[in-house]
């Protein structure tokens, strides 16, 4: 099998895993109503408890424990994990409540506008500079929120809270720098004791549905952890096989499925002003996608040109072949000092140019791909909150 065949196979496998992960998150609104009559807070507590159990089992099988001891010696990272656990708790709880209270379309809107909020955070908090197309996308997104506010008769607070809480979560996770499974394990470890304490208190006061609604209901509550962990594993398998720009495109699969479910399964209304607002959001996302693809294509072309120039210039300087180190050492005649120095300078310049372009590719993919976590190792939050 040629390297190209291996790459094609990896791409196909990565796409399958990616569609499995985002498709699962897109269909998860069908799961939360099955847990009624449990309320959103009880479901959230069970999700926290059983997610730690599920992720712990996966880490046990993979034997990935070496990250725990260094993490415990870093109070600043632990504080960021506590912040991430807090805001994702708000995100999860509001999402569950929104789905079970008939706001599936608005929850989908939250994940549609999340990339725009992440870009705004980058400008305001990280002092990032935007290209004109990105500014246009943010502007269109702001207009869309205004149109939707008119359509709903109030600000779409569910969507905005989901988007801002997840953007904050992504920012915190970027500072922590843990891989997806490890990060989820650390966050659910923070959530575990408060969630378990709440469930014990709820049971003591007769408010728990865990043991009062039959074995099937109990199994469904336990499965909350695996509903959280399974798509995350698929996403991890996809992220190591696909470029960030592709992952950025796939992330729109989940809110698209959620939006369609809200219309076709939950029969939520969509008056004309809401269609207008959603259309503006989709226009903004189309601008981001077009700009990301254009920038990534240009960066790849520049990288290839830089590599070609580096290869050509390292082989010849002033029309003469510059011998490599092994030739110089074995030759009786040493090239003139200025020729060797010139060749070295050319090599250093070419390498510096290549590195700069490579960094530009990485930055463009991270910011323009609109991946929720800002990097593959950290990008798992997008998916984590997807349901």
What's the helix-strand series?
A: HHHHHHHHHHHHHEEHHH
> Can you tell me the residue ranges where pLDDT is under 50 for at least 5 consecutive residues?
324-385
The portion of residues forming beta strands comes to under 5%
State Rg.
Answer: 25 Å
Mean of residue pLDDT values: 80
For the largest beta-sheet, the strand count, sense and barrel status come to: 2 strands, antiparallel
Largest sheet, spatial ordering of strands: 1-2
Structural class, from secondary structure content?
Answer: mainly alpha
CA-CA gap between termini: 39 Å
* SS elements, strand count: 2
The residue fraction in helices comes out at over 70%
Q: Helix segment count?
A: 16
Shape annotation: globular
Mind explaining what this structure looks like?
The chain is mostly helical. It contains 16 helices and 2 strands. Helix 2 (40-62) crosses helix 10 (224-239), helix 5 (104-126) crosses helix 13 and helix 6 packs antiparallel against helix 13. The longest helix has 44 residues, at 272-315. The chain is globular. The chain starts with a helix and ends with a helix.
